[in-house]
Amino acid sequence: MRNVLYRFYEKKLESGLAGLELPKHIGVMVDGNRRWASLQGLGKAGHGHAAGAKKIVEFLGWCSDLDIKHVTLYLLSTDNLKGRDQEELADLIEIIVTLAEQLQQKGRWRLQLVGDIDALPEQSASRLREVQASTANNSGTHVNLAIAYGGRKEIADAMRSIVKKHAEQGASIEQLAEVLTPELITEHLYTGGQPDPDLLIRTSGEQRLSGFLLWQSANSEFYFAEALWPDFRRVDFLRALRDFQRRNRRFGS
Predict the structure, then answer these.
(1) Are 232 and 225 within 8 A, CB to CB?
(2) Where in the sequence is the active site (predicted)?
């Protein structure tokens, strides 16, 4: 009976979204994997990360079903590279790389690496680049995998790219200052050419950005879910979309 009522509620939520505007780009901070493993009594955090990876496959299916064009998944931050236990970090990187390869095999999504991939072990970076190259022509949802990612570093890298390009053209600092606009910086971000995220979702009850898409989220709507990421259900996702549709988006005005 409980499952029947759940499916009925889910269908009701989904039907309520019909005909209304959905986000073109969703960013997700997949938080709570370690706590989930602890609460399940599984010991190693890797069990939580593995469960979180499984949920990502499911989540991307939900996005494709609703024709969400762009998704960015925050999988590993630059702070994680420095602050995690080395054994846990090695397990997490392997889980992420394996996840990327599983998504590649499904052939449904275009996968793009977003972050400082050179900071990863060489073999892991190589496998991820192969995934990106092999899915470049896929026509499904464009999925950004934010790995070894930091929002401040992304902005710094964009500025570095702009300065380098203008130096190669022989332009002076004064000439660069004349053309330096927010639009130019946006073009040189990791997500250059993509729309900014309309909706950012963070699971596990935490209510902060943690450096995620700092530049791109200027006009994003935020949704904080209490569920830990492995427990995040389709009905939770539909609630986030319903909440988004009820917002009066002012775009800073």
Answers:
(1) yes
(2) 31, 80
